[in-house]
Amino acid sequence: MSPATNATIVETKALTRIYHLGPAEVRAVDGIDLLVRRGEFLALVGISGSGKSTLLHLIGGLDSPTSGSVLVMGRELSSLTSYERACYRRTEVGFIFQSFHLVSSMTAASNVALALTFQGTFGLDRKRRTAEALHRVGLEHRADHRPGQLSGGEQQRVAVARAIVHRPPLLLADEPTGNLDRRNAAEIMNLLQAINRENGVTVVLVTHDEETAGRLADRVIRLSDGRIDGHGGPEP
């Protein structure tokens, strides 16, 4: 864990998300109480359908709970207006997904800078911060290349740069290595750990790779049927 503080950055209380598929009721997240410390690297692991991605999306404001609450930096997300939630996602959180979601017609630098456009950052500051983010992921020499000219590992590095360019305190990564080979997957995981350790960014990672999670994360939480199945590492 980065030497920042033990202050809580994320807290969920009795968090529940229910989906209805015809007559069937699916409790994707079922009454989860969770604390995440500022500066922590937390891994959520479990089989497909265990609820880990749904939990991540609730923390990121991409989905809304059926009941219970999500507090991030002391703010209850469900109390925010649609505009406030959009601002939260654009400024306070960085997202990395299994699919890279890069704009194919834009260069690596333009894809990264797009996140700053949503913030209203332009001019020299936008150019400088974009270059810094690409340097952070080791891709400054590929700034003018489009996604089709980059390997899968390089594309995911661009996605990481885009997620951190606005310097969010919270980084949410949903199976970020799912489309990568073993070598590139290891490089992305090590990069996330370095961002956590060196920049003090809180990382919440969803992964099926328990071995890597146990090696890199400060704490591992296992989910099963939408509930916390057990903890690893120190408690908050």
SSE layout and pairing:
Blueprint: E1 8-21, E2 24-37, E3 41-45, H1 52-59, E4 67-72, E5 75-76, H2 82-91, E6 93-96, H3 108-117, H4 123-136, H5 152-164, E7 170-174, H6 182-199, E8 202-207, H7 210-216, E9 219-224, E10 227-232
Parallel strand pairs: 3-8, 3-9, 6-7, 7-8
Antiparallel strand pairs: 1-2, 1-4, 4-5, 9-10
Helix pairs in contact: 3-4, 3-5, 4-5, 5-6
Provide a descriptive summary of the structure in words.
By secondary structure, the protein is α/β, with parallel strands linked by helices. It has a domain at 8-92 and 168-232: P-loop containing nucleotide triphosphate hydrolases (Rossmann fold). Helices cover 34% and strands 29% of the residues. The protein has helices at 52-59, 82-91, 108-117, 123-136, 152-164, 182-199, 210-216; strands spanning 8-21, 24-37, 41-45, 67-72, 75-76, 93-96, 170-174, 202-207, 219-224, 227-232. It has a 6-stranded mixed β-sheet, sandwiched between helices. Strands 2-1-4-5 form a 4-stranded antiparallel β-sheet, with helices on one face. A hairpin with a 2-residue loop joins strand 9 (219-224) and strand 10. The protein is globular, with a radius of gyration of 17 Å. The chain starts with 7 loop residues before the first strand and ends with a strand.
